[in-house]
Amino acid sequence: MSKRIRRSDEEIRDAVEAVINQNLSVRKAAKDTGISKSLLADLVKRFKNDPDNNFTYVRNIGNQKTFTTDQEKLLVSYLKITSKMCFGLTTIQTREPLDVAVYGPFKSRYKQAMNNWLTCNPGKTVTLYEVAEFVNPAFSESFKISTIYSGFQKTGIYPCPRPVETLQLKDGQNWD
């Protein structure tokens, strides 16, 4: 399978206009421009359903941040300082809050939903659709920002157990 190249917004707009104005098929336009057929079909459909026929395409790129920039900087500086004090946290220890607060409860909620379904539907096989039904409520209950915060607090990683200014390095090492 070939790797797709990210197309500019202008190229995407031209492809949508080619399908609509030049009666070009979505498949042909997608092949000619290298844009995903499903993306192009979705954009053409949105364009046709828009009463004003205004083409707008906004990329769905980004992520939801758990910590503010200041909180993230504080956490990073704390981890750097403690590592220089020979009190560094391993990668496993820095992931521990998520294991404690998020992944464990998620797994137990998922297992509970699956067991309930299997009890109510004896002899049936679980399909991909049922898995999605199990995951959705378990995910929404487990992956909350407040839960993630509490996981970092329970394990003592965030907020810092003591102010950064009071931490002393061994052997007169610098903070940098």
| Low-pLDDT sequence parts | 162-171
In percent terms, what proportion of residues is strand? under 5%
Shape summary: flat
Overall pLDDT metric: 78
- Compressed to H and E, one letter per element, the order equals HHHHHHH
Report the structural category. mainly alpha
How many domain units? 2
Helix content: 55-70%
Q: What is the gyration radius calculated from CA atoms? A: 25 Å
C-alpha end-to-end distance: 46 Å
**How many alpha or pi helices?**
7
Largest sheet: none
Count of DSSP E strands? Answer: 0
Q: Please, could you describe this protein's structure?
A:
With 176 residues, the protein is mainly alpha-helical. It contains 7 helices and no strands. Helix 1 runs antiparallel to helix 2 (26-33). The longest helix has 30 residues, at 91-120. The radius of gyration is 25 Å and the shape is flat. The chain starts with 8 loop residues before the first helix and ends in a 22-residue tail after the last helix. Residues 162-171 have low confidence and may be disordered. One of its GO terms (molecular function) is DNA binding.
Keywords:
176 residues; mainly alpha; Arc Repressor Mutant, subunit A; 7 helices; flat; DNA binding; CENP-B N-terminal DNA-binding domain
Brief characterization of the structure:
The protein has 2 domains: 62 residues, Arc Repressor Mutant, subunit A (Orthogonal Bundle), CATH 1.10.10.60; 104 residues, no CATH class. With 176 residues, it is mainly alpha-helical.
